[in-house]
Backbone:
């Protein structure tokens, strides 16, 4: 074989995606959680100007993609991006770059530091080969769930369990009005009555409480597993609640190990389809071994959403 | 008590108007804001608390809400 014109090591994790037309590739950049320093953004702009088409594409998973890059420029592109520590992302059957909302530093809805979680997962698990198919992780800071946890292979969503100090309550009624789930109402003693079965752990009561009578009893991630979109969508289902931020990487690693093992020989199949095949009990019990205090008693299989014709009951 | 009517004003204009009104009021003064049901009554109190004002109460009136608060120190 002739001496390669480019450093093939750069291609190992993927991220260089063939375009229409000879010699041209899209270069997908690694932007965990979608946060980007302005210095890095300037460098990317300069590289795109020099080697690209004159525009970039913002991918739906928070990446910046350089368009129309000639493969003979790969080494130069990688080197110049490296001046601002910008790396290339992945594609194929690997753990992808995690997405995240803005988190809790400046967004008043945010309950947990999703940016920190996304960075940690990116550092420790990015590019891990699954052996089967892609593996997507996202972090949402609150139950608004903008990153759409249920359509990721493993989706995390921030949650907080509220606790009332009745002595500190001034009976203002703001919490009951703020609770859109109907979990809070004002009782006959003019103090809020909490219906835990209706609570989705959004923390709106804590946020509005003027005296701090409502506070966080515990905080962490609600975890949904087995979702995906694409040609045959699946909605992921609930496996754990209040998983602490510092256990996130371990949690994903257990799911990943189960997937790698159970999908053996299945070919290019996503986690959700393996759960349907193996039964959710298998994954839930595997997780229970390491996370007994967080996993739910039982769950349901990923839910099939019919988006293609023929719809059930119709003829092709 | 000064009453500021924010009914018919949508988010975030209602909050910004409340903020501007509060600029001309002395710290420690109690004022009330009239708010529509829905987004306004959910968002405006929380945002005013974040700005350092002391929420005192919320009362339902005929199809709207009255938020009472004490202006916080600068």
Residues:
């Amino acid at each position: 074989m002739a001496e390669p014109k480019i450093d093939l090591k750069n291609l190992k994790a993927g991220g260089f995606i063939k375009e229409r037309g000879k010699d041209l590739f899209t270069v997908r950049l690694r932007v965990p959680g979608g946060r980007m320093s302005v210095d890095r953004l300037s460098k990317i702009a300069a590289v795109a100007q020099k080697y690209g088409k004159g525009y970039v594409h913002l991918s739906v998973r928070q990446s910046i993609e350089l368009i129309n890059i000639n493969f003979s420029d790969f080494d130069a592109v990688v080197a110049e991006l490296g001046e601002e520590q910008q790396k290339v992302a992945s594609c194929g059957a690997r753990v992808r770059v995690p997405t995240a909302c803005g988190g809790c530093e400046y967004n008043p809805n945010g309950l947990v530091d999703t940016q920190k979680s996304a960075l940690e997962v990116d550092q420790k698990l990015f590019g891990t080969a699954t052996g089967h198919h892609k593996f997507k992780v996202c972090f949402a800071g609150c139950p608004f769930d903008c990153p759409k946890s249920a359509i990721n292979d493993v989706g995390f969503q921030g949650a907080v369990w509220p606790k009332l100090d009745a002595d500190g309550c001034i009976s203002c009624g703001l919490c009951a009005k703020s609770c859109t789930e109907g979990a809070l109402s004002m009782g006959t003693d003019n103090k809020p009555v909490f219906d835990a079965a209706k609570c989705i752990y959004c923390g709106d009561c804590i946020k509005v409480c003027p005296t701090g009578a409502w506070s966080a009893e515990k905080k962490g991630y609600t975890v949904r597993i087995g979702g995906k979109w694409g040609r045959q969508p699946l909605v992921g289902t609930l496996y754990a609640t209040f998983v602490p931020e510092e256990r996130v990487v371990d949690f994903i690693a257990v799911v990943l190990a189960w997937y790698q093992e159970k999908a053996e020989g299945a070919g290019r199949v996503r986690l959700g389809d393996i759960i349907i095949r193996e039964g959710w009990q298998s994954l839930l019990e595997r997780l229970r071994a390491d996370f007994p205090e967080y996993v739910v008693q039982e769950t349901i299989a990923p839910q099939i959403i019919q988006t293609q014709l023929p719809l059930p009951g119709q003829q092709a | 008590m000064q009453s500021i009517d924010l009914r018919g004003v949508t988010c975030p204009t209602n909050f910004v108007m409340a903020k501007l009104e509060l600029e001309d009021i002395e710290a420690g003064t109690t004022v009330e804001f009239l708010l529509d049901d829905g987004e306004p009554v959910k968002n405006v109190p929380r945002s005013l608390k974040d700005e350092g004002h002391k929420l005192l109460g919320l009362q339902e009136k005929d199809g709207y809400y009255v938020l009472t608060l004490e202006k916080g120190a600068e």
Remarks:
- The longest helix of chain A spans residues 248-262.
- Chain A has three domains: 8-82, 99-160+219-304, 161-218.
